[in-house]
Write a structure and sequence with these properties.
This protein is an alpha+beta fold and 278 residues long. It has 10 helices and 6 strands; from the N terminus they run αββααββααββααααα. This is tRNA A-37 threonylcarbamoyl transferase component Bud32.
């Protein structure tokens, strides 16, 4: 058990496992940091059940949440997805220990969101470059036939030039086709890009970075899901007048940008494919 830790540190980790209650807990050891991740308390699942209902009523697979699992199933899912990412060559945490409800994971470094927060006032150019790097690496991930499921700067790590991925609790490819999961990935990333970018040209640079690697099927799927979200914009704008919450404003900004950015690309694709069949 915990073979990669020193003997003096094993007792500290075991004490944390026995006495801790936080969902995710950082533990500083003698020469490294590890993370304890607990699944015993999964929280309310009402939101996911509502999404399942909406997906069926609206016939929109992009709304489907990952299958509901118990704690052991969540542990097994996260390990399986870490192994898949690692086997494809991507940097992920090492699983140091597991039981039916808990994982102990290695620390990869400071996440991208923390780095962005430190650069927001002092170096806005570097801040934007981090967002662009997120788009680039997500495109590389998609080109390898994978999806993240919940891409967010806090779930990406940049240590030197090494880029890593965290948090593998979602598994959208279990309930929708891969192209849709990848389109959903970039849309979810843009919820963060649209609300965190400091320069108006940054969103276009992020999208271009993603496009430099993404498979064509992901681009096509993006052009298919964005119109659905665009139809919700009038309702979102009305809700924003009543209460301009951050989530609503992110939705409006991201969807507005992607609607404009995908119109030309999708029209070009259909024009090209029509030419092949004539």
């Amino acid at each position: 058990m915990l073979p990669e830790l020193k003997d003096d540190d094993i007792g500290l980790v075991l004490a944390t496992l026995a006495g801790g209650t936080d969902r995710v807990q950082r533990v500083t050891l003698s020469d490294q940091t590890v993370w304890v991740k607990r699944y015993a308390r999964l929280g309310p699942r009402f939101r996911k059940r509502i999404l399942w209902l909406l997906a069926r009523l609206l016939r929109q697979s992009v709304l489907r949440p990952a299958p509901l699992l118990n704690a052991q199933g969540m542990v097994e899912r996260e390990i399986r997805r870490i192994e898949n990412f690692t086997a494809t060559g991507f940097l992920t945490p090492t699983v140091l220990y597991r039981n039916d409800t808990t994982l102990v994971l290695s620390h990869l470094g400071q996440n991208v969101l923390q780095q962005m927060n430190g650069l927001a006032k002092g170096d806005p150019v570097a801040h934007g470059a981090l967002l662009v790097r997120c788009g680039l690496e997500l495109g590389r991930l998609h080109a390898a036939g994978l999806c993240h499921g919940r891409p967010h700067p806090r779930d990406f790590v940049l240590d030197g030039d090494a880029f890593g991925f965290l948090d593998f609790e979602e598994e959208p490819d279990a309930v929708m086709r891969l192209a849709t999961t990848q389109a959903r990935d970039i849309w979810l990333l843009f919820l963060q890009v649209a609300s965190r970018c400091l320069h108006p040209e940054t969103p276009a640079a992020v999208l271009e970075a993603w496009r430099s690697h993404r498979p064509e099927h992901a681009e096509i799927a993006l052009g298919q899901i964005v119109p659905f979200f665009s139809r919700l914009l009038p309702f979102a704008r009305f809700a924003a007048r009543l209460r301009a919450g951050k989530d609503i404003m992110r939705f409006i900004s991201a969807t507005d940008f992607l609607r404009s950015a995908t119109m030309t690309t999708l029209a070009h694709y259909y024009s090209r494919t029509q030419g092949r069949t004539e």
